[in-house]
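Subject: Predicted fold for Arabinogalactan endo-beta-1,4-galactanase, 340 residues

User T.R. writes:
Posting the sequence so we have a shared reference for the thread.
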Amino acid sequence: MKNKLFAGLVALALTACGKSPKGDMQIYPTDDEVAKGADISWVTEQEKAGIKFYDASGTSQDLYKILKSKGMNAIRLRVWVNPADGYCNAQDVLLKAQRAKDNGMDLMIDFHYSDTWADPGKQTKPAAWKNYNFTDLKAAVYDHTFSVLTQLKNKGIKAKWVQIGNETNNGMLWEDGKASVNMKNFAELINEGYKAVKAVDTDSKVIVHLSNGYDNSLFRWMFDGLKANSAKWDVIGMSLYPSATDWEQKNTACLTNMQDMVSRYGSEIMICEVGMPASEAQACQSFIKDLLSKVKSLPQNKGLGVFYWEPQSYNSWKSYKLGAFDDTGKPSVALNAFMN
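User M.O. replies:
I've generated the structure tokens; pasting them so everyone works from the same file.
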């Protein structure tokens, strides 16, 4: 509230001086206007396995409350169509989303359109959709998206942002939606997801998400192609996983790319995933703090926020070593970046 009041007073002062608050001087978004979040899709599986999370004093505490105490205000959850173990299906997502709502946190839903991981190297159709023709595949994207979001809405849970696909560097639902083979098909799949999102809530913002946020040529190729094929989106999403030695260069390149995406397409920008080895917590803190600053610096407040991917992973859970908790199950200094 204080930040908003301050920003309003600055705007009034600039207007009195004959300057537009959006013109000669950039007014940066306040902390409570920027998403500072985490993808914690593993949390129910971890809790079932007996994993516990601890605050700085070593007291066992609910993960959502720990993240909120670190300045986080949003949660991201992936959705799989029919996963073998049930985790990340619609029912599991609903349970985790309810906890986000109960903690007063915004929600991002990340549709993979697969029964398992979808990323730049694999975009495997759900088994139930394997033999669908393209018309049926588009209908499945719409129906699945609409169904999950409607289940959330019926519980009073709003999806503020919705990803249509995950790290879709070369499209999704291969081979039909492989962008390098048929960009038009990928654009049509994106539009089915877009229509479904807006049918549930016109205020939800649709994200198209690619990895390697520093790679401007990749982003231009993809979004030029989608635009040429009349695809619709609200937000361009990015992943960024630098090392402790190259994060400054990657952040600089990412800023250049973000600025280009804003000017070229008028899109808002979300950093949907970040991570760095847990052993490099101090460097990770500097990386996130700098990236948040760069996101906030985008013109017209087009920078929406930054999400850490599975920060609560520790002791090499699932062999993942890019979490932001230490080996005792407490947040590392990396997460302090979200408190600023």
